[in-house]
Amino acid sequence: MQLKKLIDILNELSPFELQAEWDNSGLIVGSLEDEVEDIYVGLDVDFELLCEINENSALIVHHPIIFRGLKQLDFAKYPSNLIQKAIQKNISIIAMHTNYDKTHLNRYVLSEVLGYEVKECEEHLCYFDVDMPFDEFSKKVADSLNLPHVKTVTSHKHIKTAALCTGSGASLLGELQADCLLTGDIKYHEALEAKENGISLIEIGHYESEVYFGTSMKEELQNYGLSAIIANSKNPFIYIG
C-alpha cells in the first residue's frame, strides 16, 4: 500500500492534531509516495531493530526519534545513525505518541492489562474506581505490569479512586482528582509534592507501562484490514538485585 494511505488511516484512528504542542507525532522519515510492503509496530526505534526488519517497510512507533530540530546529521550518533539506516533500507518511520495516549493507550493498559473499567478520561488521565487497601492495590498493579519492584508514596491506607497516565505523568499532579496516581518517571520533588498534598503514588515505569503500544496498535490496524508485525522493543534499563 502507499504510505499516504497508511498515514490517513492512522490519522483517522488517532488524529495527529491531538498531540501535545511539544510533541512530534506523524511522519518522521519517509515519503508519502513510498510503497509499503510490511508494517511493524513497537514502542521505540533502535539500530538493531532497523537491521532486522525488511526493506520497504513502515515502522509505527510510540516515541518519536526526533523531538526538536537537528543542526547536524552525525551518522555515528543517535538519532542520526537511525535516520541513515532507515533511509538506506527505505524504511518509513511514523510516531503515534501523545495523540495515541489520549485516544487509546491509557484506556488499553487500564482495561486490558490492569483489568479495571474506565470511569472517565480527561486528556492524559484515565480515572477508575478501586476501593481497596493501598498495599493490596499496589501489589495488584505490580503483578499486572510484571514490575520487579514497586516504588510508592503512601498517603492513604485505602484507595477509593485512582488515575492512570502511562509513560511520564507526574506533572499532572496539580489537576488530579483522585486518591492515587499511577505513572512512571516520578521525580523526587514530585513525590514530595504528592506527599504534602495528600496524594498517593505508584511508580509503574515508563517502559513497563507503555510497552503494550505494539499490541494495542496491531489490534487497531486489524480493524482496517491491515496486518502488522510486533517489533521487539527493549527496556534500556537493567534491574539488579
Describe the protein's architecture and organization.
With 241 residues, this protein is of the alpha/beta class. It has 2 domains: 3-99 and 211-230, NIF3 (NGG1p interacting factor 3)-like (Udp-n-acetylmuramoylalanyl-d-glutamate--2,6- Diaminopimelate Ligase, Chain: A, domain 1); 100-209, NIF3 (NGG1p interacting factor 3)-like (Udp-n-acetylmuramoylalanyl-d-glutamate--2,6- Diaminopimelate Ligase, Chain: A, domain 1). It contains 8 helices and 11 strands. Strands 5-6-8-9-10-7 form a 6-stranded mixed beta sheet. The protein has a 5-stranded mixed beta sheet with strand order 1-4-3-2-11. The longest helix has 16 residues, at 98-113.
- Please state how the strands of the largest beta sheet are arranged side by side: 5-6-8-9-10-7
Number of strands: 11
Report the order of strands and helices: HEEHEHEHEEHEEEHEHHE
- The CATH architecture assignment of the largest domain turns out to be 3-Layer(aba) Sandwich
Largest sheet: 6 strands, mixed
Q: Between the first and last Cα atoms, what is the distance in angstroms?
A: 47 Å
Outline: elongated
Write down the Rg.
19 Å
Low-confidence parts: none
Helix percentage range = 25-40%
Structural class: alpha/beta
Number of domains: 2
Relative strand content: 15-25%
At the fourth CATH level, what is the homologous superfamily of the largest domain? NIF3 (NGG1p interacting factor 3)-like
What is the mean predicted local confidence, pLDDT? 96
